[in-house]
Design brief:
The chain has about 250 residues and is an alpha/beta fold. The protein is built from six helices and 17 strands. Helix 4 crosses helix 5 and helix 5 runs antiparallel to helix 6.
């Protein structure tokens, strides 16, 4: 009987210890399981793109975002500047620096926060209620290049230059331009057959020298036209210089 009583007492003591220790352990386990872990933040360095768009999601951070011939969509946080050339900018996150768009529009969502200046050149600004711009807003409108022209130039760069296809099917306006140049060359060949034949002979005999002379000639004409443009008085002569160079 004494052994049975001692066994029962030891079992009772163990049960008492478990009853005291278990709630604390369960509370710690439940607290550990109920803690909400913060969402992962994917930090990136500078995002630079040429010929395609950049998208920064809400859980991503970046130092700077620069897109040339591409648009920018920022939902996360950028510590530096956001720049788009020939592309649109959409901000619905936080930008610690400036927002600059050249030949493109800027759209600010209701959650957008721009800590410094916002600059648009040749594009518009669409600002939702609640969007914050702590710096100055500067807008410069250029009528020579509207949104359609900017988007057409962007698609030309992405489809023709980047993919090295001079006549891409996705860019419609390059085909009429190529047709005009083809007719011009055809008329030149019909009007000056001797000069065209001499050019063909020179290209066949000395291709490298001919190419170098042609490139230097185009560069010289471009510099000369820029000088005429700076003088203002010589602007009417630019067309004559280009026509003389072609002839």
């Amino acid at each position: 009987m004494k052994r049975i009583q001692q066994l029962l007492l030891s079992l009772g003591a163990a049960a008492a210890l478990l009853s005291v220790a278990a709630p604390a352990g369960w509370a710690q386990a439940s607290a550990a399981t109920n803690d909400e872990t913060p969402p992962a933040v994917f930090e990136t360095s500078d995002n630079v793109a040429v010929g395609h768009d950049i998208e920064l999601r809400a859980d991503e951070h970046a130092r700077q975002v620069v897109a040339v011939f591409g648009s920018v969509n920022v939902q996360g946080k950028v510590r530096g500047d956001v720049v788009a050339v020939f592309g649109n900018v959409h901000i619905d996150g936080e930008v610690g620096g400036k927002v600059v768009s050249v030949f493109g529009g800027v759209t600010l969502g209701s959650n957008a926060v721009v800590r410094q200046d916002l600059v648009t050149v040749g594009g518009g600004l669409n600002r939702a209620p609640g969007a914050q711009v702590h710096g100055r807003i500067q807008q410069s409108t250029i009528d020579l290049l509207d949104y359609k022209g900017a988007s057409g130039l962007k698609s030309w760069f992405a489809q023709c230059v980047v993919k090295m296809r001079p006549l891409a099917p996705q860019v419609a306006w390059v085909w009429p331009v190529a047709g005009v140049f083809f007719l011009l060359y055809l008329l030149i060949a019909a009007a000056f057959p001797t000069a065209v034949a001499a050019c063909v002979t020179a290209v066949n005999e000395q291709p490298i020298t001919t190419l170098a002379v042609g490139l230097l000639g185009q560069l010289a004409v471009g510099i000369f036209c820029i000088l005429l443009l700076c003088t203002v008085i010589g602007i009417p002569l630019i067309v004559a210089v280009v026509v003389a160079f072609l002839v």
